Amino acid sequence: MIQSMTGFGKVTAELPSKKVTIEIKALNSKQLDLSTRIPSIYKEKEMEIRSLLLQTLERGKVEFNIFIEYIGKDTPTQINLAAVENYYSQIKDIAGKLNISVPSDWFQTLLRMPDVIKSETVEADETEWEVVFDTVKKAVKQLCDFRIQEGAMLQKLFEQKINNIAQLLSEVETYEKERVEKIKARIMDNLEKIAGQDYDKNRFEQEMIYYIEKLDINEEKNRLDNHLKYFISTIKDGHGQGKKLGFIAQEIGREVNTLGSKSNHAEMQKIVVQMKDELEQIKEQVLNVL
């Protein structure tokens, strides 16, 4: 079964002093375009995370985030008391020398000063990392499951649209007979107008053959039918067929366009327009296929 490139996964792990949430989302892209946001505590494990994502996700514009919410008293973010005291003393001295009032809200002023808030770089121990990495794997699996579900919906859509085009193609034959008769009648009318005049019959036959071959659409119909069947069989080959399906859709478009240029019939032109409408919906969605 085909898979979509679109997906989302979010899993939270609860540790003694924090909650770690893994969030990963993917959109369509020609190749794997990976961006990560990883807190400093797990930064040394970034290559391990990237390796997992590269092996599992294959293609797509992927955003990977780790969020930490501290729930205990222990936190790596601390207020630098020495810096606060130093800034407080300096501001008071400056206010006295310049004869200006001191801040009405000391805390708001002091906490905005540089280096007042400091973060201690703490490395996660192996036990914690095992829990976090297992959570990463669960989030990735959740995204992959989402892709499979989306892929099933896309497959149904493609099968429906391809069947619609095939049905429209079968309707062409009805108007094709009428079209040939009209062309013959028009040629006969023109021949009557030149009755009794001398002309090169061999050249005339050559021109007639050329004209008939130019309007013949049997080859285009056969090729279009083959492309439609090939599209369906490629879907059944499973995931990883997105680019191939895109190429086949382009070939279907070429045959539909040729049918339109050769049809020379109002009802057949309407059928071609309907085919193009169905095909455009396929082309739009095939960009999402992995």
UniProtKB/TrEMBL annotation:
<dbReference type="InterPro" id="IPR005229">
    <property type="entry name" value="YicC/YloC-like"/>
</dbReference>
<dbReference type="InterPro" id="IPR013551">
    <property type="entry name" value="YicC-like_C"/>
</dbReference>
<feature type="coiled-coil region">
    <location>
        <begin position="158"/>
        <end position="185"/>
    </location>
</feature>
<comment type="similarity">
    <text>Belongs to the YicC/YloC family.</text>
</comment>
<dbReference type="Pfam" id="PF03755">
    <property type="entry name" value="YicC-like_N"/>
</dbReference>
<feature type="domain" description="Endoribonuclease YicC-like C-terminal">
    <location>
        <begin position="173"/>
        <end position="289"/>
    </location>
</feature>
<feature type="domain" description="Endoribonuclease YicC-like N-terminal">
    <location>
        <begin position="2"/>
        <end position="155"/>
    </location>
</feature>
<keyword id="KW-0255">Endonuclease</keyword>
<keyword id="KW-0175">Coiled coil</keyword>
<dbReference type="GO" id="GO:0004521">
    <property type="term" value="F:RNA endonuclease activity"/>
</dbReference>
<dbReference type="Pfam" id="PF08340">
    <property type="entry name" value="YicC-like_C"/>
</dbReference>
<dbReference type="GO" id="GO:0016787">
    <property type="term" value="F:hydrolase activity"/>
</dbReference>
<keyword id="KW-0378">Hydrolase</keyword>
<protein>
    <submittedName>
        <fullName>TIGR00255 family protein</fullName>
    </submittedName>
</protein>
<keyword id="KW-0540">Nuclease</keyword>
<dbReference type="InterPro" id="IPR013527">
    <property type="entry name" value="YicC-like_N"/>
</dbReference>
